[in-house]
Specification:
alpha/beta; 11 helices; two-stranded antiparallel sheet; Rossmann fold; seven-stranded mixed β-sheet
């Protein structure tokens, strides 16, 4: 079977299984199997696959048909132009989460070398480390700490920090419990999914600990708002991801804690400590 023939057959199976990204997924799986970029597949469509390559590709295709996310099959996901290792220990970075970096760009001063004290950023519930590591690489002057309740997730974040040469700290904790140092910026994509919501089949492959929260998905967010109000420095910022259906309730709870809503970008809310 040639590369083109395998891709055509795989894409059809994925399409029949109502997987919308069928052709892309087929290409990602085969490129990973052959250890080549996707562009190689386009230029070598008539090349024959040997039996071992075909068997491995077919096994990975079956995982995708079983709704295992592609990022877990190939073991990585792009985030803000960088490749992050992915495993079922943590959520897969989403494109919409890149809005954190866009909002950070508005917060960060353009004259960082002139700032007397190094600014601190804590990524709460870091998972793969995508947000905090990206922040450190975009603004090397930041003092960045990554926290997570899961040791497996922290181990994954450590691997990504090492692979991307990001000098960051790690702290195992339930949100910010036990963290006693004042913070300039908190970023967090916490568990906020309500178990009553309908989710994609692929979501079931991701860790429940990183997805679901009680009280209509707001339990952990409400805890974090209380902690952030205590730990943020005056005029410090909290960037928080949540479903847009939850935004109004979060803004009110934050206000009660002395956190003023500045703006929203997609799923991301920006609060500032106002007292």
């Amino acid at each position: 079977m040639t590369i083109d023939e395998w891709l055509g057959a795989a894409a059809k199976e994925l399409t029949d299984a109502e997987i919308r990204s069928a052709r892309l997924d087929a290409e990602l799986i085969l490129a990973h199997t052959l250890r080549v970029p996707r562009t190689y597949l386009h230029a070598h469509g008539d090349d024959e696959l040997d039996a071992r390559q075909e068997d491995i590709a077919n096994a990975r295709l079956q995982l995708r048909l079983d709704r295992t996310p592609v990022a877990y099959i190939v073991g990585h996901k792009e985030f803000y132009g960088r490749r992050f290792k992915t495993t079922p220990a943590a959520l897969i970075p989403r494109p919409e989460t890149e809005s954190f970096i866009e909002l950070l760009a508005k917060i960060m001063p353009t004259n960082l070398p002139l700032v007397k004290e190094q600014r601190t950023l804590v990524d709460v519930g870091t998972g793969t480390g995508a947000i905090g590591i990206t922040a450190k690489l975009e603004w090397p002057e930041l003092d960045v700490t990554l926290t997570d309740i899961s040791q497996q997730a922290l181990n994954l974040a450590k691997q990504n920090a090492e692979n991307l040469h990001a000098d960051v700290r790690f702290y195992k904790a339930d949100l910010l419990r036990g963290y006693g140092t004042p913070i300039d910026i908190i970023v967090s994509n916490p568990p906020y999914v309500d178990r009553e919501w309908e989710v994609s089949p692929e979501t079931h492959a991701e860790p429940d600990l990183a997805l679901y929260a009680k009280s209509h998905g707001l339990a952990l967010i409400n805890q974090l708002l209380v902690q952030a109000a205590l730990l943020l420095k005056p005029n410090g910022s909290l960037l928080l991801e949540a479903d847009e259906r939850q935004h109004a309730a979060i803004i009110q709870t934050a206000k009660d804690q002395g956190l003023t809503h500045q703006e929203s970008l997609g799923l991301i809310l920006h609060f500032v400590r106002s007292r």
